[in-house]
Amino acid sequence: MIHVVFLGFGNLNHHLFIALSSAKNVVIKQVFNRSSVDSSSSLLKNVPCTQDISKLMDADVYIIGIPDDAIAPFSESLPIQNKLIVHTSGGVNMSELSNNSRRGVFYPLQTFSKQREVNFKNIPICIEAENVRDLELLRKLGECISENVVGIISEKRLKLHLAAVFVNNFVNHLYAIGSDILNKENLPFDLLKPLISETALKIETLSPKAAQTGPARRKDQKTIDKHLKLLENSDNKEFYELFTKALKNV
Amino acid sequence: MIHVVFLGFGNLNHHLFIALSSAKNVVIKQVFNRSSVDSSSSLLKNVPCTQDISKLMDADVYIIGIPDDAIAPFSESLPIQNKLIVHTSGGVNMSELSNNSRRGVFYPLQTFSKQREVNFKNIPICIEAENVRDLELLRKLGECISENVVGIISEKRLKLHLAAVFVNNFVNHLYAIGSDILNKENLPFDLLKPLISETALKIETLSPKAAQTGPARRKDQKTIDKHLKLLENSDNKEFYELFTKALKNV
């Protein structure tokens, strides 16, 4: 059995908790959170919760799920030594964790919102550790919930995280722009959903370059000019111009 | 029965042909294409094909599927009069069709690639016509293949098309950037696919604004600076800066 303590109970640890609590071979020993978590919820009814960092229980792995900036000072403040402490961030180097402990990373490459359930089975879990035994433990822990556990060092993980920002945060902002354009016309955003879905599905079988279509790709300047005219005085014009320039050169 | 002639057999008409050929109440009378189409393919074996524009058969609706720029002159050159001629483009005003004929638009809002089958059932088909009877005919034709037929005038359709460019062409370019970043690290693009899929699924239940996460949204300048450092000397830096500026202001 792998004994786990959660340090922080934000978005990501909340989802990890749900996934790991139904995994065989995992015992969630405790949840620490600076502010009180709603321990009356059925989710936490069988797990001890604490706001007192001095009362951490013994475990095989401590999973930090707090804002990136807070990871280094928080890990330094932990009153435990020589334990395996991992963070769950894409953008934080493993070396930012305090060296009072054995250090590791357990980064599920996915976007998490409290309102949405996620299935971890296909989510890549990127693991890293200072020593081989800890890496093996993290691999076992990852494999309790995902079929896609990969060892990736911090430098590569940051690049993966950068790519994730492009295909998630920035893509989602383009959805927001599309939604705004339709809202102004009193057209429902639903009209775009089959297109959004097909765009994401297409790259399961085609490379993004092979999947590309549209006026910029076919250098259809007449349509581009019509669009630019609609975007006069809009903040979105700069996006349109930048993408169009890039796509014409592909 | 609705009798249809296809004018042009590019990507979109190819897919429309497949969908309409299995629809009840539709007879595909003929396919015209300037260059020869492979009429030996099983797809076309029961449909007369011609490269001679003077030999068009009689039909209820003629569906133009050719590049946007060519639509106006081509419709002017058609040797038929007072027939219902529709184009299938998002960005071309209905009035660009020759007024020798009754004009209309039959625009399926989707991205089409020859290599990928599409299911028309959920695809919005945006229709427009000069007179009510033709609009009714186009609605009937659309409903043979889709549950989502909507009447939209040219001016609104152009805005819908603009929004589609943002959520499809530009989104796909972000996928390409993500893919390039991973390629350089010898990491498989597959690592990003669950994230891409979840990003598209999320907005089925959350608005894009509610779904937004990431360093720019939470104003995590430390992570942003790490990413910008990785993008030094990259064409993609401009994209990163533009999105980050926009997301910080959301």
TrEMBL record, chains A, B:
Any one Pfam family match given in the protein's UniProt record, by short name: DUF2520
DUF2520 domain segment(s): 123-245
Source species, domain of life: Bacteria
InterPro entries documented for this protein: 6-PGluconate_DH-like_C_sf, DUF2520, NAD(P)-bd_dom_sf, TM1727-like_C_sf
Name recorded for this polypeptide: DUF2520 domain-containing protein
Record organism: Aequorivita viscosa
